[in-house]
């Protein structure tokens, strides 16, 4: 799997999620309530990024130093891995963070940042923006 494809996939997923939350910002509060009240969903929310991050790290770990896009894709895989570990090992703290983020008014700002990052990842993955 090519690193630019991984970066493009990350960008596309972030774009779709950010547009969904920009369209319906109240959905964040409902999701936070549902996720933090169901142990099965919390486990799945931790295991999926852990698995995806591990796969990306094993695929791109040996070649991260060959180029900037490879390094970026490896960093994204590492971030996913750490997110999964944090959600599984520190579930109580993660639930507190999710509830605090859902209550605050900064959710819209965070979604805008996610939207900008998604555009940058799509441009980098597509080869239109070099790093």
Number of helical regions: 6
Give the rounded overall mean pLDDT.
89
Give the overall silhouette.
globular
Order of helices and strands: HHHHHH
Question: Uncertain runs with pLDDT below 50, 5 residues or more?
Answer: none
Global structural class: mainly alpha
The biggest beta sheet is recorded as: none
**Percent range for β-strand residues:** under 5%
The oligomerization state is: single chain
User: What is the number of beta strands?
Assistant: 0
Query: Mind telling me the C-alpha Rg?
Result: 16 Å
Q: Helicity range of the residues?
A: over 70%
Distance between the termini: 20 Å
What features would you describe in this structure?
This protein has 131 residues and is mainly alpha-helical. It is built from 6 helices and no strands. The relative contact order is 0.22.
How would you concisely characterize the structure shown here?
With 131 residues, the protein is mostly helical. Helix content is 82%, strand content 0%.
Q: How are the SSEs ordered, and which strands pair?
A:
Layout: H1 3-23, H2 27-37, H3 39-60, H4 68-89, H5 91-103, H6 107-125
Give structural attributes.
131 residues; mainly alpha; 6 helices; 0% strand; globular
């Amino acid at each position: 799997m090519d690193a630019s494809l991984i970066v493009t996939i990350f960008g596309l997923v972030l774009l779709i999620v950010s547009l969904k939350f920009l369209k319906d910002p109240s959905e964040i509060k409902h999701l936070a309530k549902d996720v933090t009240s169901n142990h099965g969903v919390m486990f799945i929310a931790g295991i999926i990024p852990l698995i995806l991050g591990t796969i990306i790290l094993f695929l791109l770990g040996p070649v991260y130093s060959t180029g900037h896009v490879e390094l970026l894709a490896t960093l994204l895989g590492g971030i996913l891995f750490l997110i999964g570990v944090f959600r599984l090992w520190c579930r109580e703290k993660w639930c507190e963070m999710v509830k605090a983020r859902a209550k605050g008014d900064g959710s819209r700002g965070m979604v805008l940042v996610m939207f900008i990052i998604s555009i940058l990842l799509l441009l980098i993955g597509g080869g239109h923006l070099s790093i």
